[in-house]
Structures are given as structure tokens and as C-alpha cells.
Amino acid sequence: MSYFDAASSSPLHPVARQALLAALDDGWADPARLYGEGRKARLLLDAAREAAAEAVGCRADELVFTTSGTRAVHTGIAGALAGRRRVGRHLIVSAVEHSSVLHSAEDLVAADGSVTEVPVDRTGAVSARAYGEALRPDTALACLQSANHEVGTAQPVAEVAEVCRAAGVPLLVDAAQSLGWGPVEGAWSLLAASAHKWGGPAGVGLLAVRKGVRFAAQGPVDERESGRSPGFENIPAIVAAAASLRAVRAEAAEEALRLRELTERIRARVPQLVPDVDVVGDPVRRLPGIVTFSCLYVDGETLLHELDRAGFSVSSGSSCTSSTLTPSHVLKAMGVLSEGNVRVSLPPGTTEEDVERFLAVLPGAVAGVREKLGVSTPTPAAVVAEHSLVVDALGKRCPIPVIELAKVIGDVPVGGSVRVLSDDEAARLDIPAWCEMRGQEYVGEEEGYAYVVRRLT
Amino acid sequence: MSYFDAASSSPLHPVARQALLAALDDGWADPARLYGEGRKARLLLDAAREAAAEAVGCRADELVFTTSGTRAVHTGIAGALAGRRRVGRHLIVSAVEHSSVLHSAEDLVAADGSVTEVPVDRTGAVSARAYGEALRPDTALACLQSANHEVGTAQPVAEVAEVCRAAGVPLLVDAAQSLGWGPVEGAWSLLAASAHKWGGPAGVGLLAVRKGVRFAAQGPVDERESGRSPGFENIPAIVAAAASLRAVRAEAAEEALRLRELTERIRARVPQLVPDVDVVGDPVRRLPGIVTFSCLYVDGETLLHELDRAGFSVSSGSSCTSSTLTPSHVLKAMGVLSEGNVRVSLPPGTTEEDVERFLAVLPGAVAGVREKLGVSTPTPAAVVAEHSLVVDALGKRCPIPVIELAKVIGDVPVGGSVRVLSDDEAARLDIPAWCEMRGQEYVGEEEGYAYVVRRLT
Fold this sequence. Notes:
The structure is a homodimer. By secondary structure, chain A is α/β, with parallel strands linked by helices.
């Protein structure tokens, strides 16, 4: 198997494993206790905090360990909002944040706060100007990821931090995807990250809160981790997390170059090898290991199964791979195609051979799925009605509505139009994206379920 | 070193270590993913849930894994309170609950809810009658530990559950100290526990919520653990937790007998070996491995250091061993002496020799501390004022006020009284406890810092 889903979780780094084993023997006792075992545990915890703080670029007393990156984000946002309650209850987030940030935002809205979602361009990037425009007198906090987890696009964190700093608003950076590659630049105020993304164990997140940032931890707390992360510390995992962060950092510069070359190869070759493909995300300002593309007329779940059978583990933002049958909010915000979406995220150590094998397998896998979906056969669903073609794809799921549209477009005279009826949430994103890829005009949506397309070529 | 603080945290059980190592290789991927590594992780997680549910005595779909016992308690209480918000915002807890329960209660009070603390008797036990009396029409939830973490006293959970059931109020049981020994009897509604107490790894708690119990998880959630515990699952640790629970249960009956004999030996011998000692907690209805006693005229922190030097790791509920300089809330609620408090909690596998060595070392350690404190020398602090003796111990910390009292009591004529001036929080508990132990009369407190004692014998 080739595991190409490092952005979701990385296998344990050998250094993490070694550190974990050693700390299982020495770090199981309560670090708050005065006896030998407790003091030993405390020393391990303190050393891990020093190491992690150095990698983050903050003081040790600014950093606490949480039980996951998600918890670090939840705790950071809730604490920063509460700390600035007098200023107001307005939160700024980008439209492409990790779900942990968006769930925190929903929580705020449910508690009568307000949220501004800053839009992104087609590469998935925000602009500092847009953050500046979103700032209000009652803005308590702004959040921005260092780089996007689905398409790899790096965000202009330093510029956004500067805009926020000038307005006196703290910026929380979700550095989950990038911390293994290097510290986050710029004058951020809070930072959250997750160890299992950099080859550390699950169960460890970290939250840094700069001195001077108003912060009031919410919910029941205890005396552990400066009152910011209740519950008995998982010291063996924390030790392993800090050790592996240091280890991946030592290899980061070289490994980043290598993976960037491999993902660049995928970016360039996939459109040559597979027809009707859209590679998304910023081609330059991006994480080294992530490349994402979407394949027209492909059912994402079936494609994932095909690739899994061929020995490749990847993930997808297609609607059919989510439990809610809605496409990824990231692809939606970018306005790009979501059907047949594939995210390849290479773990450190991925070889050129692995990538070449993937490129060899992909075209056949996509073609197989398209064949099953009958992409090249004429459609029975199209009916000519009142000078306009109507495709009735009601009750059919992605990628069928787009496939039906592609089948009939040849029957539409140039300048004429076709209405696609669809109650599938993905169609709202994928039909305009198809038009853009195909050079056709997307006229608009009627009555919430009819999508009008005019043939231009 | 002999580690006698298992109630705080247990070293990793060999089975836990083995399971953890195996699951590090197979359980690091995201169990929500469709590919091979994800399916493998999902299988491990499902199997661990089945095993844990069997040990708890609930259905697998009633149990979620949290990141600590503390989180299980916080989540359980917040979710149950929110689920019954329409009924009211009244919570019942015992006065001797773990701090995680009491912190949740404080959180409710801060949010304009109300809390009734059910008192305990001198053994630390609540009565079902007292829970019955605390029930109100607006009671949303009641909480009770299965057994106390500081003195080992078992609580009448089944009876309290019955009283709550009759009133239609759910009961949350904090089973942290007892789950390794066996399932909790009775019709409880929610149950929380912590793996590192039974020899599992840190970072794993469990929360069971019976079907039919109204529950609404609070704070931002995600799709993991039925929406009750957000953040990436720590599957290797969860697997190790479930495996070790099964392993300790297999040894529980035999080991309970053995440890009970050893703690019984400590209970019986300590008062013979050490003068002026009070063994606390229920002598019969109790956990097998815990025994707690308090030594008059002893500074708890110094005693802990002496025992640590002699090779024994124990903990204490004395005020001088807490960061807030207040005695343990458990000892306070029981109304027993807190000075020179020692909790011995034996981990499975403790040998008779360990215990005998402890009993050999303890008398000298206590005597050494008393000698340093000058317990047998006459006091210069006592002055005769207006027909009544006054001991000015203002500004002096536990155990000095009680030592000063003991020094002058011989100078008081039988029937006469002495006033001890003390601004130490521990005096409020320890002076009445000393009177009870010494057969003298505690008359009462004056102006918040003067404690009046009448000599009877």
C-alpha cells in the first residue's frame, strides 16, 4: 500500500515511537506529585514544553498541550473570545478553515455572536485586504490557517497578522498542516497545531497564547496546563510529539524540496494523462506534499475504492464521500469542481517510484469509473421541451447531473441553452465549474433546482 | 522505590503496553477514511469499544471514548444538564466528589444554575436518604462517585440510583476509582471513568450514556465519537485501555482479596505503631487498595518528603501539600483531621514485603517530623490573659496551631478553656478533630480566627 493521505494523519515517526516507549516507563505518574516518579514525569513534561516552544517560536510558558489539534482550536477560540468579551462578540474566519474552526464559529453564532467568513480566490487563498475589510469595532478575534488542508494553498499569514495587529485584534493561526515544515511567520497572537499531522502520536495538540493576549479559558478547568487544558496529562505522548517535531524539522528543508518536486510532477502530469481534469490550489504558494485535482464525470467514492484496490490511500472532498452528501466547503468556497475530487498528500519518505506507480494507475482507474457511469453513451434523460432542452436529473447524485449535461450539450445549437434539473447539492458547484472548464456559459440557477447553461462553442 | 499512589495514576499494565505497541502500527490512520489503513483503524476502535462496553455493562453504542476521565465527567455533566434544561438547572453532587465533578458544578453556578452538595458521614459515605431529600422538581442531574478517591469509602450507588430513578432524575456515576475492580451495580444513567487509573495509558477516558437518557453535547463538536468527544481519536491508547481493563478484571477478584488484606494490616498496625494517629474512611465498605490516616502534630509535606527519601511514594490531603494551602475537601466534608494526612493506595502486585517495609519506616518518619516541629518542648506562645489561656498562632501554618494547643492543654485546669488564634484554614478542621481524638470539648469559633477548647480530662 502507498499511503497518500498524510494531511489527514501521518504514520508515527520512528523518533516518536522511540520517545514514546521510553516515556511510557518514566512518564506515567502525576507530574503534580512531589515524590520521585512525579518529579521524573514533571521533568519530561517541562523538557517537552521547552522543545515544542522552540519549534513554535514562543516562550515555554506561552504553550500548553491539549488532547488534540481540534481541542487546541476550540480552546483557543473560546478563550480568546471570552478574554475580549468587552470588545464584542464578532469573529472573523476564512471560508476554507478546518472544521474545528468552523464548528467553533457555529457555536458562537448559536450563542448570539456574529461571524464574518472571508472569501477566497479560485486558488483557495484569502487576501489581507479582505481581512482588513472584515474587521469591525466589535471584532474580538480573527482566525486563519497557515495553509489549507485540502488543496495545500499557503495563506498570507504575516500580512493578515499585520492588518489585525494594526487594528488591535488578535489573530489565531491554525498551523496544523504546516508546523512540521517550519514556524509560522508574522505577529500571530495564538497558534494551534496537532501532533499526529507531523508524525507524532494522536492525542496531542498544542496551543500557544502570546503574553499580553487576553485569554479566559472556558468551561470547567483544573490546575493542569496553566488552567487551559483540563485532565491528566498524557506525558508519554507529549514527549513523543515534541521529539518528533524536532526530528521532522531537522529533515524539513531537504524533504520539502523532494516532495515539492514529486507533487509538481503530479500537478503537471495528471492533466496530460487524464482527460477532463481540473488541478486546484495555488501552484506555487503551497505546502510541499499536497496536490488536489477533480475529475469530471467521476463518482469520488468509487474512484477512491478503485485507487484503494490498486494500493493507494487518498481522500476526497467529493459530496459522495461525505456523510452529509455535500461537497467539501473548501472546494465550494473556491468555486471549483468537486466531483471526482482526489487529494494526494504525500508523507515524508514517499519515493519517486510510489508517485510514478500512482500516475500509471490513475488514468485506468478514472476511465473505469467513467465507463461504469456510461459517460460516452447517448442519454435517454434529455427531452426537447418548448425550444429548450431539459435534462431531468432529479433524484440523481453527483456526478450524474454533470454527466447528463455533458451528454446533451452536443444536441444544443450554439447560442441555445439547456436546463439541468437537479436536487443534488453538488450540482450547484459542479455545473458552473463544468461550464468554466468547457468554455460554456453558466447562465444561472432557477427556482433552486434548475441550472441553465448556454452553449458557446 | 515502592509506589503507593495508585489512586492517582497506575503504571502501565504489561498488557496495555503490548496492545499499545501493536496498535501504534495498525491504528494511526483516520478511522473515518475508506481506505485500508482507515478500515483497519476502525476495526480496532470498534473492537475496543465492544470490550470496554462489556466491562462497563452497557451497549457499545452507549459508550464513547474521551481524552481523560476529567473530560468524561465534564462532558457527561454538561451534556446531561443541557439535555434536561427544560426540567431545570439544579444539580446534586456529594461533598466528596472528584474535583472534575466539583469544577463542573462551579461552572453551573457561574451560569446561574444551582447545586446541592450532599454531606457525608465521618466515614465519607453519603446516604440514599440524603440524596432523596436533595431532589427537587427542577433537578436535572445527580452525580455520585462509586468510591472515594482519597479515603476509599464505597458509596451506596445502587440505592442512590434507585432513589433518583424513582424521581425520574438521571444519575451520573464517576467510577474512576472502581471500574478496574468490577462493574458499577445499580440503575445508573451515565458513567465516567479513566484508563490510567486501571493501568491503561493516560489520554483515555470513557463516558457511557444509557439509551433513553436525554443528552445534548455542549461546545463545538464534530462527527467523531457520536458527536460527544471532538478531535482525532487516539486509537492506540484506546486499544491499550480496553485491553488492560479486560486484563485487570481477569485478575480483580484474587487481587482485591490480597490488597484488602494488606490495607487491613496497615489500618490495624499504624495506630499501634504511631501515637496520635487517626485512620479514616469506612473500615469495611471500601476499595481494596486504599488506606488513609492522619498524624497529629505532623506537617504533611515534610512527612511526604521523609517517606519519599525512604523509598515510598504516597500522597496527602494536608493543606501544606496543596497549592492553595487548604486541606482536602474530602477530609473537610468528613470532619476528620487533615494534618499529617497520608493516603496509601497500593497498585496491583504490591507485595507483603513492601507493606512491611512501609510499616517499619513510618514510625521513625513521623517521629522525625514531630521532633523537628518541637512537639515535646514547652511553648513560649501561650500567655495567660483574663482567666483564660490564649495561644497566639496567627501567621503559623498547619500543624503548628494544633501543636501549640497540645502544648498548653496541660496548663489549663479541667473545666477551663483555651482560645487558639489562627488564620490558617486547616485549623478550622484540625482543632475540632484534635478535640474529638483527645476527648476534649470543642466549644466553637469566635470572630473567624479564635477557636475555643474546654479541657474535659
